[in-house]
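Before any further analysis, we paired sequence with structure tokens, yielding the entry below:
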Amino acid sequence: MFDMGGVVAKHTDSTMERQLLEDFGIVGHYSFSSVDPTLPSLLAEHSKARIDEQEVWEQFSLRTGIAIPPHTGSLWGKYFRPELDPYVVAIIEELKSAGYRVVCATNTEEAHYLYHRKAGQYDLFDEVYASLTLKEAKPDRAFFEKILSFEGVQPSEVLFVDDYPENCEAASDLGINSYLFADPVDLRWHLIAMELL
């Protein structure tokens, strides 16, 4: 079970958030949370498809006092052009060749989900479990429980790879084998040590 952004895809929300904040005329901040600590919870609601993007920006303005400039299309998708890490892709392909089922377990929003779909970047996986469709997001327990149920597996049968400590901790609390991703070389050595590669 692999996370997408920051593991398979070379992309972090903080880079995109910084670019959007610059568009909004805000300098000196590198993430939405540094502007207002309540914004991550707002984005989590969008990730769970409980609010749409228009409401995100309305709430963003109400909470921060920052006027969103006129725009067409998705602001959340404006700077989203991730590339897949070829070394991680190679690891996933090796795992699949060895007979393992590899699924994506990702927090994402509609704009990002559609981009990955259109670019064929989810084709790498046997299945994609996205917060957008599950209506649950990491690190919530329900996110992992739904995936385990859909896959019909026990927690101990799963390896979860993610770049956020809180997500790995939440998965571990359920009995899922978790690996905090740093780079593909360490990941490969970890998989070899587990005798998966």
